[in-house]
Design brief:
Length: about 220
């Protein structure tokens, strides 16, 4: 399957998208720290009405999630909860998660497996990589170089991940009805006192956040 960055306008602006194996949207919402019972099946336009109705007392993200084949996705537009280390550790517990984010001033690719950050980097900034180096750096750099100067944002990287996973989440698909809800940034998972990482922002590769016994990743 060849994913096409030109059909991913939703990934050209401020977005954060996560892709997690073998979860359903209800579990994804729960691991983000949201109440799955608050989700409503809404298309993209109707879902944005949820954000406009929120009080202006802090950052609120619109989360839209679903499952395609073996993979669950969660897309935030104009939000960045899904690239925080605590959320990704929880999302990937007992499974694996890819995260692609572009926010104001930072683009990030991350791959997590069972609560551990396996690969993290900011495209174009080789110093942001930490050993052991993973396989995604070269692929991401090549994908972005192929669209250099086109204002494609992180759409080429999302296309690369979608192709790897063998699923389609283009503009037409995302515009349709999916479970949707809002989540205040303050309600997202935060590091517990026992976590091995006490800094802020994305977690460096190799970091383990302990959420209890692993659930048997095969």
């Amino acid at each position: 399957m060849q994913a096409d960055a030109d059909s991913l306008d939703w990934a050209t602006a401020w977005i954060c998208a996560t892709f997690t194996r073998a979860l359903g949207p209800e579990e994804v919402f729960a691991r983000y720290g949201a109440d799955p019972g608050q989700a409503r099946l809404l298309d993209r336009d109707a879902a944005w009405d949820l954000v406009s109705g929120e009080p202006d007392d802090g950052m609120v993200s619109l989360l839209r999630a679903g499952r395609i084949g073996e993979w669950a996705f969660c897309v935030e537009e104009d939000g960045g909860i899904g690239f925080g280390g605590e959320v990704l550790a929880e999302l990937s517990r007992g499974t694996e998660t890819y995260s692609v984010a572009t926010t104001e001033g930072i683009d990030v690719f991350q791959y997590w497996r069972d609560g551990v950050c396996v690969e993290y980097f900011e495209p174009g900034m080789e110093h942001s990589r930490s050993e052991p180096f993973g396989p995604w750096w070269d692929q991401v750099e090549e994908a972005l170089a192929a669209h250099d100067g086109e204002g494609a944002g992180m759409a080429p990287v999302v296309a690369l991940v979608l192709e790897h996973l063998g699923i389609t989440l283009d503009d037409a698909a995302l515009a349709g009805p999916w479970p949707s809800l809002t989540l205040a940034e303050d309600d997202a998972p935060a590091a517990s006192p026992g976590d091995t990482y006490s800094g802020e922002g994305p977690v460096p590769p190799g970091t383990v956040l302990d959420f209890g016994p692993a659930s048997g990743l095969s």
